[in-house]
Amino acid sequence: MRLLVGLGNPGADYADTRHNIGCWVIERAAARWSIRLARKGAAQRGSGRAGSKLVELASTLDWMNLSGPPLKGLLRELGLTPEALVVVHDDLDLEPGRLRIRQDGGSGGHNGIKSVIEALGTPQFVRLKIGVGRPAPRQDSADYVLEQVSAEERAIYAPCLERAVDALELLLNRDVATAMNQFNVREKAEGGERAS
Predict the structure, then answer these.
(1) Is the sign of the CA dihedral 45, 48, 53, 54 positive or negative?
(2) Annotated catalytic residue: which of 19, 98, 127, 129?
(3) Active-site residue, 110 included
(4) What's the CA gap between 124 and 121, in Å, rounded?
(5) Contact call for residues 13 and 144 (beta carbons, < 8 A)
(6) pLDDT for 89-108, tens place per residue?
(7) pLDDT (tens digit per residue) in 35-45
(8) In this structure, is the dihedral angle defined by the CA atoms of residues 26, 23, 111 and 73, taken in order, positive or negative?
(9) Residues tagged in the binding site annotation for tRNA
(10) Domains of the chain listed by start with CATH number
(11) Numbered residues of the known binding site
(12) What count of other Cβ atoms lies within 10 Å of the Cβ of residue 26?
């Protein structure tokens, strides 16, 4: 079994913010794999299969900056190690819609990932990063990621969310290296490059 967690903040006020894009991916994965997400504690959770692989999906375990302790508890409840974990989250250093998979590493300044690393005592878990781009000059990064996304911007993210679920499927049913090779690249598109 693998545990796939989308980081974000709980509540309707935050549901449509850039910081919750990891939760959007989990919702999209649940829809594709016919997994019903239901409230359990502080999280939306559900179990099912992605192809032949058994998965547990979860999102919004707690406030973003406090994600680590409840995630550690969820791993313990499921009898899983950090190596079975895939965390999906927003990334300011990637342009909007670009994906990047990492096997491990530091927090990159992301407070949710920092909390997870501190709680688990290891950086040895997979991350699927979703680019949200940088804020405008003089705009605070925290304000930027907590802004409501417009309908137009959400439409831009829609194909990225589908590719993110494709990446998760490949990661689960093949391996991390294969998924990295396919999704950590820019794809050529007619008229220029398209971020992937």
Answers:
(1) positive
(2) 19
(3) no
(4) 9
(5) no
(6) 999 989 888 999 998 888 88
(7) 999 998 878 99
(8) negative
(9) 14, 65, 111
(10) 2-194 (3.40.50.1470)
(11) 14, 65, 111
(12) 30
